[in-house]
Design brief:
Helix content is about 65%, strand content about 0%. By secondary structure, it is mainly α. The protein has one domain. The termini are far apart. The relative contact order is 0.16.
Length: about 150
């Protein structure tokens, strides 16, 4: 899996526009949610591997999103939309991995076939964490300086 930093950095660059300011946090949460829900269970209880496979599927994430959005009465549809788009970005990145055994079961419970494009091993994005952090930091610093100089010159 691409690591949480990679998922978060990708979400950051996708949602950088100020028009997404209000609900950006839900997109970020969606981008890391499948791993946050499935990985701790898989690490602490490896015997529950089949359950963690089910957690890291689109069907489970849709159901979880609908349940989670019930806590937000006034802007429930925005929460659903941004969470699902974040989850979609997560699954899109995961689609490009390759595994020794089966990968992810995208159509669970309707199919037990695993599909992946297989461009990189799951460990590769971990090596790129410093690059992601530098890119995000440089972008954020540049944008903040640009805003500051725009306010001063106005």
């Amino acid at each position: 899996m691409p690591d949480l930093v990679t998922h978060t950095a990708t979400a950051y660059f996708l949602m950088r526009s100020d028009s997404f300011q209000r609900f950006r946090v839900f997109f970020y949460l969606g981008a890391i949610l499948p791993d946050i829900l499935a990985r701790p269970i898989h690490i602490m209880f490896p015997q529950f591997y089949l359950y963690t496979i089910a957690i890291h599927t689109p069907l489970f994430m849709i159901l979880f999103t609908l349940l989670f959005a019930e806590f937000f009465q006034t802007f429930r549809l925005h929460v659903i939309k941004y969470l699902l788009f974040g989850i979609l970005s997560h699954f899109f990145l995961d689609l490009f991995q390759k595994h020794i055994t089966d990968g992810y079961y995208w159509f669970f419970p309707f199919s037990w076939r695993s599909f992946e494009i297989g461009l990189f091993w799951p460990e590769l994005p971990v090596r790129l964490v410093p690059v992601w952090i530098l890119l995000v930091a440089a972008t954020e610093i540049t944008l903040r300086l640009k805003r500051r100089f725009t306010r001063i010159s106005s």
